[in-house]
Amino acid sequence: MSDQPDNSKQITPRPAVFDTPADIPLPPETTAKMVPVTEEDSIPVEQLIKAARELTQRITNDDRQRVVKELKDGGTQLNIRTKAPLELMEFFTGEVDLDTELAKRYAHAPLLSQASLRPSKPGPDVKRKAVAILTSQDDAAMVTVDLFLETQVLEVTFTLGSMVSMRFTVGAIEVGERQRWLELMRRSSGIAFLWTKQRWEEDYLIFVVRENFARVYAFSPKRVEAAARITPDIVAKLVDWLEAFWFHDKLTAKRAEAPTLLRPPAPDFKPDTQPMPPVVNETSKPEPPSPKPAPVADAPAPSENDTTDSEPFPFEW
Q1: What span, in angstroms and rounded, lies between the C-alpha atoms of 113 and 134?
Q2: Using CA atoms, how far apart are residues 82 and 193, in angstroms rounded to an integer?
Q3: Which residue, 21, 122, 216, 290, has most beta carbons within 10 Å?
Q4: Phi and psi (nearest 5°) for 223?
């Protein structure tokens, strides 16, 4: 026998991927994972970027017009050209984009991604102050929000490296201003001002939200500024936390007025359609005593001449 391999049987090579005919159907598990192409996927990237910028610009213009209207209704419009900071003056007149200008000034602001709420919700033991601490991943940057419950004064402290702190005090904010700020902060994009009636004459905060990420800028008339970035989940926690303390009585009354719903029955529960018979309350009567059985005489012993069965025949007297 020769040790050489038998080459009589020709091995047909497997077709490559590009040699596979197009009419061969794909397996169901493959087609289930395929994402259908939509109209948005067919749009070029340049057009999507342009549309996103136009949408952001339109939202910014709407916020600018809203703030100018609020200042006009409050009688502060006359002080815009004389007492307002230069950045706000140019923003109100539509000369610059406030988001772009502030983002360039604080391009590398720290990102705050952790939150510690003390306490997390109002209670009878919380009477003076509630604290929210927002920190970065490496704890190098921190923003502390102190809410004084008696005066409704808000103090925001920016701390860098556990060494330098800058504190901004926002006085008592009106109820309407608080509600309006909460509604604006729950949008996916927009600009929201948190300030008092004195506006820029006292400390104030500017929140710029883009795709649920927020940039917070703090300003003081004493020429002190600070900035930080906040992740979407921390923004939602901070907004809900402030709403719980600002409108505690309103939320409590709303929960009390809400109707109490009964728990639905189980899915396998089948009510009995047959009516139940009425229950009759009868007093139990004593049963009459049963008669005692009559005594049975002993059967006579069988005689020797008896040819019947050995067992006695049952009989009764």
Answers
A1: 7
A2: 20
A3: 216
A4: 65, 45
Q: How long, in residues, is the chain?
A: 317
Which residue matches tokens 């040790």?
Answer: 3
Residues 6+ positions from 289 with CB-CB distance below 8 Å: none
Tokens 């006579």 sit at which residue? 300
- Residue 85, CA atoms < 13 Å, CB-side half-sphere: 17
Low-confidence residues of the chain: pLDDT under 50: 17-20, 313, 315, 317
Q: What is the pLDDT of residue 77?
A: 63
Give the global pTM: 0.66
pLDDT at 42: 67
pLDDT of res. 158: 97
pLDDT value at residue 317? 46
Q: Residue 250 has what pLDDT?
A: 72
Neighbours of 77 (CB within 10 A): 15
Residue ranges of the domains in the chain? 45-254
Q: What are the backbone angles phi and psi of residue 262, rounded to the nearest 5°?
A: -75, 150
Q: Which amino acid is at 214?
A: A
Cis peptide upstream of residue 13 (ω within 30 degrees of 0): no
C-alpha triplet 241, 243, 245: angle, nearest 5°: 75
Pull the structure tokens for residue 110. 């720290």
The first and second tokens of residue 109, run together, are 């602001």
> 3-state SS of the chain?
CCCCCCCCCCCCCCCCHHHCCCCCCCCHHHHHHCCCCCHHHHCCHHHHHHHHHHHHHHHHHHHHHHHHHHHHHCCCHHHHHHHCCHHHHHHHCCCCCHHHHHHHHCCCCCEEEEEEEECCCCCCCCCCEEEEEEEECCCCEEEEEEEECCCCCEEEEEEECCCEEEEEEECCCCHHHHHHHHHHHCCCEEEEEECCCCHHHCCEEEEEEECCEEEEEEEECCCEEEEEEECHHHHHHHHHHHHHHHCHHHHHHHHHHCCCCCCCCCCCCCCCCCCCCCCCCCCCCCCCCCCCCCCCCCCCCCCCCCCCCCCCCCCCC
d(CA 172, CA 44): 49
